[in-house]
Design brief:
This protein is mostly helical. It has helices at 4-44, 54-64.
């Protein structure tokens, strides 16, 4: 039977693996979508209308903000 330290270590490793998987499968694509949206707006907008990029890109960008500072390890 595993002791409390061994169980804690197993749970910690499982949690790290879960967070890494979520970051790879969910958060990274959201970051990519937001950055690519902003880049497309930079390519297609004039300097006068650059501020308008936030309208189409805001949902993708804002959806990742709560997770932006979450460490993967």
């Amino acid at each position: 039977m595993a002791g409390p330290e061994e169980k804690a270590e197993r749970y910690q490793k499982a949690l790290v693996a879960l967070v890494s998987d979520i970051q790879r499968s969910e958060l990274t694509p959201l970051f990519k979508e937001g950055f690519l949206c902003a880049a497309r707006c930079c390519d297609s907008q004039t300097p006068e209308t650059m501020q308008a990029w936030s309208a189409p890109c805001a949902p993708a960008t804002l959806s990742i903000l709560p997770y932006a500072g979450t460490p993967a390890n």
